Each structure stands twice: as C-alpha cells, then as structure tokens.
Amino acid sequence: MMWAHALWTLLLLCKFSLAVLPAKPENISCVFYYEENFTCTWSPEKEASYTWYKVKRTYSYGYKSDICPSDNSTRGNHSFCSFLPPTITNPDNYTIQVEAQNADGIIKSDITHWSLDAITKIEPPEIFSVKPVLGVKRMVQIKWIRPVLAPVSSTLKYTLRFKTVNSAYWMEVNFTKEDIDRDETYNLTGLQAFTEYVIALRCATKESMFWSGWSQEKMGTTEEEAPHGLDLWRVLRPATVDGRRLVQLMWKKASGAPVLEKALGYNIWYFPENSTNLTKTLNTTNEKLELYLGGKTYWVCVVSYNSLGESPVATLRIPAIDEK
C-alpha cells in the first residue's frame, strides 16, 4: 500500500511539474474606431498550446461591466477582441483586463485604463480640390470633406503633407480646425511658381493619440509667373582677317526655375562698351544665337518673356580681342 501511495504521489508531482500555464497577457493596446467598434490587442500573439481568452470590461465610468463576445475573437489563440455598438459609450473611461486560459490553468493581465477621447480613431478626410487662387502667387487652396465618422462637436487636428511631382521628399504642416462645416479649406503658401504639387491629408480628434490614415493624394499646380531668369554663356571663335569675331551665345532657364516654366521668346540686345547709343536688338524663339562682333569689348543682354512679363536681365561681357 505504501508503495502504491508513493507512486501516486510521484505521478501527481510530475503532473504539476509538467503543467505550463499560458503566458500573462501584456502590451494591451486599445483603439476606439469611432462609431464602429472598440478593439483591444495584446501579446503574446500565439501560444505554444491551445489558449482561449476572456476580456473583461468596465464602462459607464465603472458602473457597468461585461465580457467581450467570444465570436469577436477571443477563442483559439486569437489575441484581439472587439466590443460593438450599442454598448460603446462615448465619452467614457473603460478598464480592460485579459484572462488567458489553457488546459493547465488561468492567468490574468494587469488592469488597464482607457479614456475613449484619447484613443479615438476616425476616417481620413477626402480632398476634392487643389487649385490656385486667381491673382495669388505661389499658393494653392486645398478643399476637402470633413470625415462623416467624426465627432460633430470636436476640434480636429490635421497634418498636410506635400511635395513636388517626382520628388521623394515630403514636407508637412500642422493646423487645427474648430468649425464643424462639412467642407473645409486651407491655403498652402510659400510654394514655387508654376509647379505641380502632390497633396495628402490626415486628421485626428484634438485629444486623441491616434491619427487617421492618409487621404488619397490629389495634385494641383500653382499659378504661372513671368520667367524666373536665364543662365547665359558664350563661345568665342577666332577673329577673321577683317577683325570680326563669331560669338555663339547660348542660354537656358536658370537653375531653380519652375519645371513647367516655358518662354514664348527671347529679346537680345548688344552694344560696344561705353557706347550704348550703338545698341542693336534682336528677337528669337531659339535658345542660341550667333553674332559677328568687332574687336572691341561688348556687352550682351538677354531676357525671356511669356504672357505675364519678362525675366530679369542676363548680361555677359565679351572681352576685346587684345584683352589679356
């Protein structure tokens, strides 16, 4: 008998020593998807043995409590659960505790506390227009629709990101909107003239730590201006027997000029140094010109123009033949 009792005790001890409780649920994170659900996740995401979970909630500022429905995925090693309307109360403060259970026992997480205002996540806004304002330089006006699923009375904070087309680098501005109009506007200033930009928006309620996703991108172009300027250079050919020289002039729009900038034509004038009364003028639509000049020092000036005006003057000095 004593031998049988000792064997039974040994088997019992082995059973307890081999028991493996589930890991304690940690890193609990909850998000209130406005008017859709209140969802919590936790780790570990997967247990070595079959584990099921029970998510306990208190709400209505602690006066009510319930358990997350098992079909919202606390069963079978799933590590998330969603509470659905109509039991989502806002504004409110919730507590959440996750209980993990397997064949060997139960272990509970710490109790976590959640203010719904601080974890609200809303839909992204919808941009419907990015256009310049007539007569306002280097600006586009962005118009968008405030998210339908957003608290009507809430101030929304926004991040607007923008970049030039084909650029890899985004820039951002942050602002808030206190009005509750369905259609919103923002004037984005300090841009390059006649340049196409890509715009996107995201938003969040003022108290929340969670941003919406980014809106679909929308493109718009700033107003055209007079040309930015020219880079001008020349190639000097040897003088002929009569003392005349072939000067090949070439130019292009200045570095940093808007990519879309186009000139309708170019005005060129040139004169011997200190003899402006001998100025000659030419016009061309090409970006190069050949001049035959005498052996003196000359000055050459070129401007580009479009329907809005002229560029700053690009000037070039042509040295005299005998100048060292």
From TrEMBL:
Q: Where is the Fibronectin type-III domain?
A: 124-225
Supply the Gene3D superfamilies for this chain.
Immunoglobulins
Q: Does the keyword Calcium apply?
A: no
Cite the PROSITE patterns for this sequence: FN3
Supply the alphabetized keyword list: Cell membrane, Glycoprotein, Membrane, Receptor, Repeat, Signal, Transmembrane, Transmembrane helix
Q: Where is the signal peptide?
A: 1-19
Q: Write out the annotated subcellular location.
A: Cell membrane
Record-linked SMART domains: FN3
Pfam families in the record, alphabetically?
EpoR_lig-bind
**What is the membrane topology here?**
Single-pass type I membrane protein
This protein's major location comes to: membrane
Say if the entry is tagged with keyword Ion transport: no
GO-annotated cellular components: plasma membrane
Give the protein family: Belongs to the type I cytokine receptor family. Type 2 subfamily.
Name the UniProt record assigns to this protein: Fibronectin type-III domain-containing protein
Q: Which organism encodes this protein?
A: Lynx canadensis (Canada lynx)
Q: Source organism lineage?
A: Eukaryota, Metazoa, Chordata, Craniata, Vertebrata
